[in-house]
Amino acid sequence: MTPSLAKAINLKAKLRRGDVCLGAQIALHDVAVAEIFGRAGFDWLVIDTEHTASDRLVVRAMLQATEHTPAVTLARPLRLDADEIRRFLDLGSPGVLCPFINNGEEAKRLVQACRYPPAGNRGYGPRRAGMYGFDADEYFREANTAMICIPIIESRDAVENIEEIVATDGIDGVCIGPMDLSISLGCFKEFQSATYLGAVERVRQACERYKKAMGTASHSMEHARLCVEQGVQILLVGGDDAFLASESARWLKALRGGAA
Questions:
Q1: β-bridge mates for residue 173, sequence order
Q2: Which residue among 20, 26, 152, 168 is least packed, with the fewest CB closer than 10 Å?
Q3: Active site residue 51
């Protein structure tokens, strides 16, 4: 079995056990960032191609850089696009975090895009994923079982339809996108508002009911700590650009006489 699929199967087992799995998002292009994050000890990483200029060559290089680190590295496509998802999977991503999945039908399409027939409609051509033919047959046998499918919940519609999303066979869990969800709910960045917290609780209850992993991106260290305490399983704790900005600002403030 390829290292990526083996790590993905292990991560899925952790999610089923209820383990908290910490992740980070990569927006910058230098593959050393992915390698550093992989060595740092994150359980999973996501390469963002939705909000960045990262292309397929960057995705491939980052998958290669993290192959022999403990982290499972997933692609985040621009949208629910079976053709784009297939390319990321063929490059070696063992699944995807997919933005703006708003209902059960879209969740079903996501699962189908990640699986070969008869479980899905993924076309065959696992170039790097099958180690350029050296492990292609084994990859084909194991890929459907190993694929990780995580919808990002970031709209009012998704919350309204959360039960049918998480009930979809093949969905491993969901991850709330706080910024877009708060915009959709009319409470941008008001993460303590009753409207926002009510939506989060609705997602949590659906995940518990259908025994799927609950996830969210954190919007502060305090929020991340609370999520760990609450057992949020798919926890996106931050990203490379945000870490770089906050840490550089902290050092400058401290050295120019302000509080650290």
A1: 213
A2: 20
A3: yes
**168 assigned to some structural domain:** yes
**pLDDT of the chain, 260 residues: tens digit per residue:** 899 999 999 999 999 999 999 999 999 999 999 999 999 999 999 999 999 999 999 999 999 999 999 999 999 999 999 999 999 999 999 999 999 999 999 999 999 999 999 999 999 999 999 999 999 999 999 999 999 999 999 999 999 999 999 999 999 999 999 999 999 999 999 999 999 999 999 999 999 999 999 999 999 999 999 999 999 999 999 999 999 999 999 999 999 976 55
Question: Domain of 25?
Answer: 3-255
pTM of this structure: 0.94
- What values do phi and psi take at 14, rounded to 5? -60, -40
Report d(CA 218, CA 241) in Å as an integer: 15
Q: Which of 51, 68, 219, 223 is catalytic?
A: 51
Q: Which distant-in-sequence residues (6+ apart) come within 8 Å of 1 by Cβ?
A: 9, 138, 142
Q: How far is CA 138 from CA 12, 13, 69, 96, 231, in A?
A: 19, 20, 21, 21, 35
Query: Which residues have a Cβ under 8 Å from the Cβ of 226 and sit 6 or more positions away?
Result: none
Which of 96, 109, 225 has its CA nearest to residue 173? 96
Q: How many domains does the chain have?
A: 1
* Most distant CA atoms of the chain, gap in Å: 64
Structure-token match 């650290």, residue found? 260
What are phi and psi for residue 88, nearest 5 degrees?
A: -65, -40
Q: Is residue 40 part of a domain?
A: yes
- CATH of residue 67's domain is 3.20.20.60
